[in-house]
Amino acid sequence: MIDQLLASLQVVALPLKSKFRGITVREVALFKGPAGWGEFAPFLEYDDRESSTWLLSAIDAATNPAPMAYRDFIKVNATLPSLNSAQEIAELLQSFAGCDTVKIKVGESLTEDIVRVAQVRSLLPKAKLRLDVNGGWSVDQALINLHKIYEEVGPLEYVEQPCATLEELRLLKEKLKIEIKVTGDEVIRKAADPFAIDLQGAVDILMLKVAPLGGVTRAREIAAHHKLPLVVSSALDSAVGISYGLQLAASLPSLDYACGLATGQLLSADIADLPLLNGQLEVNPISPDGDLLAKYAVPVERLTWWQERTKRAFYAGAESEIKAKGWTW
Ligand SMILES: [Mg+2]
Fold first, then answer.
1. CA 128, CA 143: separation in Å to the nearest integer?
2. Does residue 209 have an active-site annotation?
3. Which of the residues 17, 19, 32, 105 is marked catalytic?
4. CATH 3.30.390.10 spans which residues of the chain?
5. In angstroms, what is the span from residue 218 Cα to ligand 1's centroid?
6. With respect to CATH, is domain 73-282 assigned 3.60.70.12?
7. Phi/psi at 172 (nearest 5 deg)?
8. What is the pLDDT of residues 83-101, one digit of tens each?
9. Fold observed for domain 2-66+290-325
10. How far is the CA of 105 from the centre of ligand 1 (A)?
11. What is the rounded CA–CA span in Å between residue 118 and residue 151?
């Protein structure tokens, strides 16, 4: 499998509209398998072990048909990076027209956070607002900051990963004096074994990201194991990777929250069309456009780097899982 995979590997560099996670260009590797396209795009700093679950996800998608779908369209939220320019915020929100939920990155500076959240509130008075802290606050900081933001801008739908660890999240939930749900993201996607952790009392909602959790098949197993309300999100994927999130979201028997799958709006170019239609994305298999693959192709030294990386990720964990699951090409 790995030889066929490497032989068809193509890598693109997709420009972002503004800096996100400290990057301005997103490199994505793609290959074709018997059931469709695989997208392998761990962030550049991830090691082979962490990347191996991303490769497992790509191989799952390229090997297995999509699970049965309960819905054809998935409601999505707008995603706002930690921008501080009022004009940039307004422009970015425009590109998410139709979304009635906005996820806002916070955590660098409380003063800037409040201004940013308040601006979204004034631009979209009826929208549901969520915050994502990426585990950046201590319990005490989270208590102070969440109470302060609540005082300034009113109720929030939920806060994603306010603190890093499950113990901190549990303590925070005990001490919070305002009504706000806590969503777990890093606690699950960075866990050595996402089945082995106890989320009881620590999170109210579980975030599922297909690639870091090892694919649609494994994400569905993780969801069934933890039995919590779910939100499906992407990790700045191309349209191909986003389509896996849409497949997963469509396959969940109940889905009560808008999903974070509209991150394609943060890219200024993509390899396939996946239009945002009135705050929703349509569930469909996606194949990259050959002309766009060529247009955004990386130079040969980057392709070589990705081929090496893919091979290392395969042997760092993906191969044994694939054998255990009996997937073949
Ligand atoms: Mg997050």
1. 21
2. yes
3. 105
4. 2-66+290-325
5. 19
6. no
7. -60, -45
8. 899 999 999 999 999 999 9
9. Enolase-like; domain 1 (3.30.390)
10. 8
11. 11
Respond yes or no: is residue 105 known to be catalytic. yes
Cβ pair 69, 283 in contact under 8 A: yes
- Reading the block at residue 269, the tokens are 């170019």
CA of 207 to the centre of ligand 1 (A): 8
pLDDT surpasses 80 at 105: yes
Q: Where in the chain is the domain with CATH 3.20.20.120?
A: 73-282
Residue pair 205/228 in contact by the 8 Å Cβ criterion: yes
Cα(132) to ligand 1 centroid in Å equals 6
What per-residue confidence (pLDDT) applies to 19? 80
- 79 forms bridges with which residues in the sheet? 103
Look up residue 113 and give its two tokens. 């956070």
List the structure tokens of 284: 């469909």
Residue among 126, 128, 190, 209 flagged as catalytic: 209
The rounded Å distance from CA 170 to ligand 1 centre is 18
Tokens of 313: 């990720």
Cα 76 to ligand 1 centroid, rounded to whole Å: 15
Beta-bridge partner residues of 104: 80, 131
Q: Tell me which residue has tokens 């609540």.
A: 150
DSSP letter assigned to residue 11: E
Rounded mean pLDDT of the chain?
Answer: 96
CA of 160 to the centre of ligand 1 (A): 6
| 313 Rama class: left (phi>0) / alpha (psi -120 to 50) / beta | alpha
The C-alpha torsion from 85 through 86 and 88 to 89, rounded to 10°, is 120
